[in-house]
User: What shape does this take?
Amino acid sequence: MGRMISLNTSLPYANARARIRTWLRNMVRRQPLVRWAEIPGAGHYVHDDDPAAFVDLVAHFLA
Assistant: This one.
């Protein structure tokens, strides 16, 4: 039988439609270890659109 594990998780998304954004926010509310992070104006390639903001978010997550 499987075991439950606890993980801190980030859910990146790139300018998702309102329905997906609502779904993600509901998931964040239900999962206390999930953190919402958004880089305004970034598209699908977040790391290319705003490299500094992307690195800051990833570094904070890994710290």
About this structure: The mean pLDDT is 79. Residues 18-30 form the longest helix (13 residues). Strands lie at 9-10, 34-35.
